[in-house]
Protein 1
Amino acid sequence: MGSLFAGLSIAVRAMQAEGSAAQVVSENIANINTSGYSRRLPILTEVLPGDTAVFGGGSGVTLTQVQAVRDRVLELRIAAETQSQSGLQGFQDAMQPVESLFDPSSGGGMESSLNGFFAALSNLATNPSDMTLRQNVMSTADSLTASVRSAVQQVRTAQAQAMSQAEQAAQQASDYLEQVANLNGAIAAAKLGGDSVDGFLDQRAAALQNLSGLMDFAVADSDDGITITTRDGAALVMGQQSFALQVSQDGNTGKLCVVAGDHDVTASIGSGKIGGLLQARDTSMERVITELDSFAYEFTNAFNAQHGLGFALDGSAAGDFFSPATNQAGAAASMSLALQDAAGLGCSSDQLPGSGGNLDKLSALAKSPICGTDNPSDFLAGMGFRIGSEISRAKVGAEAGDVALLQLQAQRSATSGVSLDEEAAQLMQYQRAYQAAARVFTVIDELTQTILGMGTQT
Amino acid sequence: MRVSPDYLTPLLDALDRVQSTQQDALQRLGTGRRLQRVSDDPAACAELAQVETQSAAVDQFSSNVTSLRGMLQTSDSALNDTVLLLQREIVLGTQAANGTLSDADRSAIAGEVSGIRDQLLGLANTTYQGHYVFAGTAVTQPAFVTDSTGVKYQGSKSVETIAVSEGQRIQLTYPGDKIFDVVGASVFAATQQMLDALTNGTGISDAVTSVRSAFDNVRMQRVSLDTAMTQLDHAEQQLGNQNVDLQARIQDLAGADLAQTMTTIANADTARQALLETATQINRFNLFDFLK
């Protein structure tokens, strides 16, 4: 046989539970703009019949759990997509100054300097003894060497920029790794104390999301929180310990090294901003430098060889036109004119000033395969094509990644995002339930009053 | 199914996209070029570089044709004058061969022929922009000098050619010995013979014959100069055609399609307006507005 007092306690319990549920709603509304926040669901459970059982029924309701709604698989997919997308973006941004060397609309590029040089040679052929035309050949040759040197300089500057960006990104990544390690600790402590860990989990997910913009990594659950490793398994976070990333330059190869703790993890960073920067700096830009060196080396030597067969204006054997390149490495950076006096230009094939026989052969180099299997102009066009295709591929990939990422984020938001309509409805629902419980309390209270009033005179 | 309550992110993203499309199109419109960066179309850019190289070569050939024509015209008019002078010499010689002339008349004719000889030497040493056109490749010194034995050729015998377009070459140097100093048909030897004959009063007819063969030789040599000029005209025409083709190809590869670009801009603008309109219309209310 139940008692009125049992009814009172059920009503009180209901008011407590509905009030707490409304509190959860207000938490959700408060965090509507918090990034990484997962909406919380109050889980209300019927209190099972026990000692306080009232005629076989339950003992009311209680808020047993506040559940955060999140989809870990979805979050990992977002992380993976972010990694590849930001890798492509990082590559594209870093390559921009290199791409501008081959801009189709620019007039001062290497290609047009080369055309100008050969045009000056062709012009000189109409009157090989003319000093003005000879001088013109010298000055166009000078601007050709200047444009090659400045191209090397521009790529080197881009490499330095990429390196400092990689250093900054590594610093950021180290911060995020440290955050994750700290959160691992906080979560373990909260679990021991029986407190809610959802807030920490949200923060940890946000840190991972940020980290995935910088590098690729693997996540595994372990007894003491999550473990983060590189794709190859080198530890980045173990429990509450994190390993900071250090970027340095290899003294021999000039390439970048990324070290986590004691491990060289360079090879296992394939995407994220750091991955994109590494690829741009150490693969693509390095290749451009090598190609420029090869161009300068082969062009200089082929031109000098033919030039040396000719005779200067005074009939003496012509010397070197460009400063001779002995090593291929560094040839582009040091490309310059050896000849100072335009009269020394070796145009003549018969030692007489009016002859342009050798000049004709020098002009023909424009169409000869002196740079590997290409003529000089095609070689430069080929370089531009390779750079352009790489960047274009990255662009297309990044755009596709953008769309995919947007969809994934919409999915995440559909699962975990806070909707005001929904919260409004729930707030209403809990308010009504609270009002009803309060009403029940009042009614029982009145009944109790009636009982208490029994036997007294009215 | 629960839908994403965040409508702003996709909206902003769409606005971003529309704006970047519009900016690209505006840039194309501003520069008149479709290709702004190599990555826009790497293959087209590589071809463009090759076509521009060809175009630069054609441009240079065209400007070469102009300066070569000047040189050839100067040479040609020198030969024309030479022919006229030799003709005059033949007329004078034929007159002098007439036995009725007095010594004084012959002497007057000899004076004119002597003047002609000096003029011929001047023509043989014609210069164009400071170089001697009939000196072969030894262009810095006069082709012919006078010494004790008469007029002597001191230029070179090198005949050189120059490319005037892809695969077409014309003769650039015209060594004077072939024109003025051929054995048996030498302009200067014949003139000297004429002078001597006039002074002595004998052998004038033989001298006229010599001058005539020198005259024939110069006319014959002039043909090769005229051939070069004709070739130059052909080359110029060919270069003009090539230039038109190359410019058309460059326009094809790099030029912006104006109509298409304008349409893109207009479309992007419409889309942008619609998006902004939508942004102000949707989600103006939520359930809270209706709960009292």
Note: The first helix of chain A runs from residue 4 to 30.
Protein 2
Amino acid sequence: MKRLLLVFSLILVPFVFSIAATVTVWFSWEGQKEFQSIVNEFNRVHPDVQVNLVYIPNMIQKLRIMLASNGNFPDIALIRNNDLGLLTDANVIKPVSGIKTTAAFYKSFLVNGSEYAYPYYADIQVVYLNKALFKGIPFPKNDWSFSDFEKTAEALKNNGHIGLLLQKTSPYFFDSFNAAFNDGIIPEKNGIPLVNATGTFKAAKLYNYLFNERKIAVSYKKMALVNAFKTQRAGMFMMGSFLIPDFLNLNLDFTILPYPSLDNGNPIPPVLDSKGFVIFNSNPAVKEFLDYVTSAKIEEKFCKSTYKLPANEEAMKSLGEENTFFKTMSLSARNALILPRSKVFKEAYGKAISTALTLYLSGEMPLEEAFARAQKYIIQHK
Amino acid sequence: MSLFLPVLLVSAVIFLFLTAKAKPSYTFALAVLVFIVSFFPIIWGTTISFFDFFPPRLHFVGLKNLSSAFTDPGLFLSIKITAMWALLVLILKLVISYTLALSILSLKKFSKILYMVVLTPWAIPTYISVIAWTALISGYGGESLLSSLFRMNFDLSSNIPAAFLWTSFVSVWLGVPVMTMVILSSMQTISPALQDLSKMEGLDPYEKATNLYLPHTLPIAFPYIFLSFLGSFKEFTVFFLMTGGGPSVISGFGEKSIVGATTSVGVFIYNKFYSTRNYGVVAAYSVIVGVVMLILLAIGWNYRFHRRKNSLIISTIVAHAFFDFWGVGSGMFGIIPILFYGTSLILFSKRSRSFKKFFAIGASIDLIHMLFEMSKYGINAVSLSTVISVIVALTLSFEGKIHVSFLKIPNSFWKGAKILWLSFWSITVLLPLWSVLFMAFSKENIIPIDSFFPTSLTLSNFSNIFYNYGFFNSLKNTLIISAIAIGTVLLTIFPATWAAVDSKKVTKLGNVIVFTSFFSGMHTLIPLAITFKFLGLMNTLFGVGIAVAAHSAAISYFLLYPFLSSIPKNLNEAAKLDGANGFVRMTRIYLPIAIPSLTTVGVFVLMEAWNSFIFPLIFLSSQHLYPVSMMLYNLIGEYGTSYSQWNLFGAGAILNIVIVGTFFFISRKYITSGVISKGGI
């Protein structure tokens, strides 16, 4: 009987070792094809690990559903840094260690003193400029001020174009203006964002000045906004750097600039929209895969074709000088705004800011009342 | 989650109690399906509303969550907005569908082609048509091809009337095909003798419509019409994709909730889901919305009893009083119209025909008061009780009345109007199709559209969809889901419906199906996911298929029950005398006769399965299992924030429409013939 068991075990051993560990990865946002080819390459050179890639159209929606239904999480998921609070609060992700990245990326995924993700890349907000529409208009430089920005928009408008396109009720863009008047951060007290203060009022008034008083800025929904720029209706628009590859494919005559500084010298910090891999199930195969994709060479490969800022310092150094676009993106990242990772910021702040801006800019509600209501809503959802 | 098993057990007992005496050999399969997918998630959702629930942690809080939801002014406003919107959609849908049905019925040529054109929106998945319409309407900050036609701005993010009216229109556009089909089919039940009589009397089209078609078709089609109103009450996709619930309104900016001009209850619950991780709170809001649905359903249910108007009036009075007391009705003023409705009830019990007049007076007072209040306080003054009373009054006033046209309009006018109307509606049907075609053949990823043809044409989007995005695999998954859903519905619904026809005791199961169908929605999806995880059905095509099947059960039952009931009983009795058992009678007598009706049911379920988007989104977590709807959603990404690939989406959408359209075309005969019987839907 013992002999039989031994023979049986010997037969089984090779089979056991031939079974590859499976790692399920949820991926979202741009670069689906590029990441798939990286995964294919990894699977080819690492026969001991099999990575199963799933593209998730709306990551936070899917993660929320999994949280609510106590569902099965993947081993790894790519998330936006300001979605982190939701997952740490639910205690479903593991802290990581030994991460080598820039200070901004590290801070992006830091919650209560622990790092919770392998930072992968970031999109950064920039100003896109339609070069073909600048005939007779002085072209601004990287270190432009708000006055230059305003004059440029005015000149474009006088030439019959839209001076500036900006989604006026989107907190994603307002955050930068809000931070510009609040020492470069979104002010918080005991983890609760503060919106009922002078700095935020000044930012909202600046919006009112651009959209309603000077009328040099116009707000469209995102799809119309991008198309208006493509079809040369608008001279400038503020958006994340993720549009660069598409515009290059279309051979658009365009360039990008960093956000301008306020006239008092304070920068308007663009949002560093960082994405990183969080770990739900920690095991050697997961680590092996993450070490592979966040290595300098592989990260550079992904970010080069998708125009993302790599989190890997070596990749960043290499790409930072690649072309004008990467140079401007790196320059923008120096002043970048890192959004709070708290649950209340994610769940209440955005909705409250968007509603307050809509009501204030449409003239339906006075500024102070709109933001006082926003503050109450945020506190109620803390 | 230690609560899960006890709740499962208790709900099984309640379910058995509710459906007891149903012939188990015929109804068991359907009962299991309804229990798992609809009934248990409702009970589970209701249970967790008594807890603070941060999965997997549960903490009993009694009525705290329910009381907080019950007193949230944001919820009041959302219910009012939804009621007003649903009423508008219902009226528009009825007017458009009736006029289209009448026009098609009176055509001598091209009636079949035009009927197919009218039915076309049904073959286009909702998420495709809504996105196409949004691009056409809002354009660049409200400046679009349509806005230039109307000479006004249609910015759906800031223009409240535009947002409210365009979302209504798109919902009507989506609902007109089935409504027209139901009305047209019900018109075919009018006896030829009556039709000949109307010709001999020389009735003009208006008189014919009001004296012949409306009185005969309304009682037959009304249960479907009311269910369609309840369906509008649960609408989510149109708002979510077109306006996201906006534009913002002052009265909607509260501490607990933020409600915009188009925040329907579906969007409201969805927003709650996103603003808290305490799912006990979300469940509490869902329970309150479910109770509102239940009250409305009770009124709709009473329309089935044509001779028992007292049930209808009583349920309207009770609903009126409840909504007035709660804060979504007319408040203290509600006492005045209720007095009229009470008088109407007394008159009805004394068999006086003037009961309708009193009801109409009450509803008029209700309406005038609401409009007056709305002129002062805007949308906040909408009264759900008024909306309900007006619907009931309108339908009562149509019964047993002779409408005479005082203006003698020449026939040529009616002919011209008919041609114009059908042409206009055909263009309206084809507009979003053109928009999707534009995207599909455009080289550039461009939207909104501002020219008739794309500047650069290409076919590469189609090849891209096939080679790089696994269209074939997605198609295979969609076909599997559809086959599972159709198979499950036919195998469960047919025996159970036959049993209900054969024995009145079984109809209880039908009632439970209807109840669960209208109580469930966005809010019961999470409990359903928990149940599916427990049963190992998560991330399986089978899970998605049976979820679609269970959600199609109500409409399938509504389609099949009247048809089987209309089959002469003597056939059944004769077979019984010959010694045929139930199974033989079901398979040898009823099944062959019911094949056209079953095909119609199959087509309905196919449409549901093909268009299903929420179930795959929630239940599937493997790329190789994604159906076409998910593949297309991947191309759009996080709508409004991601960078969407519209040209690829357009190509995928066109392929999808062609496939569904082909199914639709092949089965058109069954769709039009098997929809209705004399018993009504």
Note: The two ends of chain A are 66 Å apart (CA to CA).
Protein 3
Amino acid sequence: MENMPSIPSKRPRFALSWIISLLFYGSVCWIIAISELPPVSRHVFFMRNQFLAGNETFFKIQDPGVPFAIFEPYLPHRGSVSFLTDNLERTTAEALQSAQGFLAPLLLNPDPGESTALVFCSQNAIAAARMQATGYRPIKVFGNGKLIAEKRS
Amino acid sequence: MTALFPFLIPALLGYLTLAALLRPTLIRHKNLFLAAASLPTGFGICSAILFISLWIAPSHARFISFVTSIAATLTLSVFECLWARQPHASSNPLPGPKILFRTFFLNIPRSKGAILKFAVQSASLLIFLAALWAIIQFFILSVSTNITGGWDARYMWSLKAKFMFRSSIAWQDMFSPTLSWSHTDYPLLWPGTLAWGWNCLGHESLLWPPLASSFFYISCALILVWYLTAHVSSITGWIAGTFFLVLTPPLFWSIHQYADVPLTFFITASGLMLVTALRSGQTRLFVISGLMAGFAAWTKNEGVLFLLWTGILLGGLKILKKHYPSVTLSSLKAFLGGVFLPLVWILAFKLFFGKTGDYIGQERSAQDYLTLVFLKLKNIPMIFQAFWNQMSGFSAWKGLWIFSFLACLILPFKKRANDFGGLLFALVLLINLGYVLAFLTTPNELKWHLQTALERLLIHTAPLALAFSFEILTFRRNATPQSG
């Protein structure tokens, strides 16, 4: 009896592994079958066509840094300029990061210590108050609180 | 079509590099592995060449990086052609058309069983291709509405790439403390890939980043298909690949062009190749695993953590060599050999450029971190709760982590000598343990950090968990240990 072959004892184990394997494959196939992608709106198909056509100009509007294009010709290509906004923390961060992406490799410093400043406020009055508080004077005005300023000597 | 041009050199360079490393090995399904890993490897090499060119010869960096990449591709092509002419080449054919010919035309099923198997294989392949087609359609639709990607893509990765592309003189300004919000210490594989593509195209193409991101995502699925086809069966491989495609988080973060998807690829490729190498004992496979781990560290700081864990695991197995004879000193050396080159440029990057980050380079010492861990132990329940909430979410992970847990329970009953089946789970566990420690010592607000980062961090180990689950719960083994 001690020398009984071990094959019969392996059968339940084999059957169990077969059942687990079957259950696993069944579950995975069921999950794949019920999976679905989120719906998309109709206008997206037009945008997809632009993508497939390689129409890059169409997508430039999606760059959050586009509003800063007006400043580009009047700023140095590299170096560092101060970046002044309405001074609301959230707006500052978003605007600063978008502007940085557009104007790199020029560095935008949120501290008003540089000789030149890019002022990006929502109103002229706020821009004037910010310049007054930080010691800048305007050198190129675009309107609506948007201007380039230099440090008062 | 022009947006596809920058793929050409990385794809060739990656293919030739991996083919040269794989040449004397008996790895199964070489073509599948090469299809999955060639392009990411090429991107890794090209980004490194660009970084080194910018560092050493900034004024001619674009030209030098381009010429070096082409020269490397041509040199490897010549070696490959010379090797193919040698008489012994036919005994171990190069990956390529010969193996494809054998697979499709010489292995025609004849018996009833073989025909049935062939039919199921074909069905699983067709399901994978159908899922891939649907995913690609959805990917293009989604990126069309947000071509610049998520926050990290816009203000971290793409910003670094703009510095690398726009000014070879002022590119180092990206490491300025003024830009500390853009994680100046993060390595440059993904920004380098973006800048490489823009250099090839000659302008900052908005279409290139999503295309490159999609290729990393598809490579993640293919590397899983390769591993499970080689170690379990091709049916399991294609089903596992399809299962990966239906997971929401990897697709979501790939659409948003985060570097987590490239990192996921390199972690997965390294982990799966390591298990293959351990099973077969073929030294060259350790080199490839090391190379992939090196590229993981070149992608994100989390990759450095992965590299450390892998090294510790391999070292541990070497100490226990009585039980694991395939872990020899030469296999350890081979792994380190693969890591060596990426490690050189990563060290150069960390020493000279990206010195300070959220964790390393701050005023905190190692002792401060230890103290912090003990002080913040009260946050452990909150962190584990967040992990549980995330992992148990069916809509995102489709039960993947539950399957892994079940596989872990079954593993002790399925253990075979030198199988290394548990290594994948050990990697999943250790990497996530590292993330728990990172959350514990986070300089940010914990709740915010968990909300914004946890899902992305889980992507890194998801394919490894998936491979582990499929290998354990399907109870099959295709490859002999020696054949890799």
Note: The mean pLDDT of chain B is 88.
